[in-house]
Design goal:
Helix 5 crosses helix 7, helix 5 packs parallel to helix 8 and helix 7 packs antiparallel against helix 8. About 80% of the residues lie in helices and about 0% in strands. It is mostly helical. The longest helix has about 35 residues.
């Protein structure tokens, strides 16, 4: 081999090494961005998918789907109406905990609809709100699971109370969306 061939070989090796390093750095940044964005939801989806790359694809798909929504803040009158409705629902818990949990889930869904989230199957609703509310979406899932257990006759009053706490957490986040609009890059300008 002459000097030119050695130089070209070294150049090719360096270019390949730089490309591999760039790829790995980009992939790590992508993972870090998604982990920061979705918090515990990231880990849940990775566990569910069984593969980090698949999970990250799922989360990126959620972000792209969410970008298409026309999420809007609630008018002051709607916010007040929903807050009053929540107080009424909570006030009924002692007399009929099971029905109250159903009413709470329906009220959360109604607020989501009023904000502009598409309303479909539960898992899709949970996936959709996970983009904007990654820290409380697990509460929503837990509350829904308790409601399903109640429908099967397998939830205690304490379980139902916990479901109400979980629904309230998401309900309050949906009502107080101003904080999310300021802190969530997907939501800005929505």
């Amino acid at each position: 081999m002459n000097h030119t061939q050695i130089f070209l070989l070294i150049l090719v090796i360096v270019i390949i090494a730089v490309a591999v390093i760039a790829f790995l750095v980009t992939r790590k940044r992508r993972s870090q961005k998604l982990r920061e964005r979705f918090g515990p939801e990231y880990d849940r989806v990775v566990k569910q998918e069984g593969d980090m790359r698949k999970a990250e694809g799922v989360l990126e798909f959620r972000e792209k789907r969410r970008e298409k929504f026309k999420i809007r803040p609630l008018a002051a009158a709607d916010r007040s109406r929903f807050a009053t409705a929540w107080e009424e629902v909570q006030g009924r818990f002692v007399d009929d905990p099971g029905a109250t949990v159903t009413m709470a889930e329906n009220l959360v869904t109604e607020v989501m609809r009023a904000r502009g989230y598409p309303i479909g199957e539960f898992e899709q609703r949970a996936a959709d709100i996970s983009v904007d509310y990654p820290l409380v979406v697990e509460n929503y899932r837990s509350a829904h699971a308790i409601a399903l257990r109640h429908n099967a006759g397998k939830a205690s009053t304490e379980d139902l109370r916990q479901a109400m706490v979980h629904y309230r957490t998401l309900f309050e986040e949906l009502l107080n969306e101003g904080d999310v609009l300021r802190s969530n890059p997907v939501r800005k300008g929505a």
